[in-house]
TrEMBL record:
The UniProt record lists the keyword Phosphoprotein: no
Assigned keywords, A-Z: Transferase
Protein name per UniProt: GNAT family N-acetyltransferase
Keyword Transferase assigned: yes
SUPFAM superfamilies noted in UniProt: Acyl-CoA N-acyltransferases (Nat)
The organism's place on the tree of life at top rank: Bacteria
One GO molecular-function entry: N-acetyltransferase activity
Domain called N-acetyltransferase: residue spans: 16-156
Length: 156
């Protein structure tokens, strides 16, 4: 990755990018669900005000990737890694991995011991990335997402 790449914390300036980068992959493979609407249309209230965090990957100053840490309601888990999206124009450059590493480091800084994520088996590149980051498949817990058919966890 060249010097024109950086990861910055979310600000209101990136609200549209956060929504659009996520809607792009969700619409391509699935459909927008109620939980998506809550997070994507009110990241401040749904994620940040609850103690979460959102990272924005910039390439030449343009948002090309996003990822969130959302406080997790499931017992034993501190956060959910969620709403990771990388623009198709920027995929294959390692941005997803750098975002994942950044989010994991942020979770540790926030005192997390274990984080969780939900995905779908048809998203093979995403699952490969999560495995590279150290996530392992876990027994499924109840999910608010119809599209979720795999859940993974990472302990620190």
């Amino acid at each position: 990755m060249d010097a024109s790449f950086t990861i910055v914390p979310y600000s209101e300036a990136y609200k549209d990018a956060f929504r659009l980068l996520n809607e792009e992959w969700i619409i391509k493979y699935f459909q927008i669900e109620e939980m998506d609407r809550l997070a994507l249309h009110d990241p401040q209230g749904y994620i940040l005000d609850k103690g979460g965090y959102i990272a924005v990957a910039l390439l030449n100053g343009i948002p090309v990737g996003v990822c969130a840490l959302i406080p997790c309601p499931y017992e034993g888990y501190d956060f959910e890694l969620s709403k990771m999206g990388v623009s198709p124009t920027a995929q294959g450059k390692g941005i997803g991995k750098l975002l994942g590493l950044h989010i994991i480091e942020k979770a540790k800084q926030l005192g997390a011991k274990k984080i969780f994520l939900e995905s779908n088996r048809k998203l093979a590149p995403a699952l490969a990335l999560y495995k590279k980051l150290g996530f392992i498949e876990m027994a499924k817990v109840a999910s608010p997402y119809a599209r979720s058919d795999i859940q993974m966890e990472l302990s620190f």
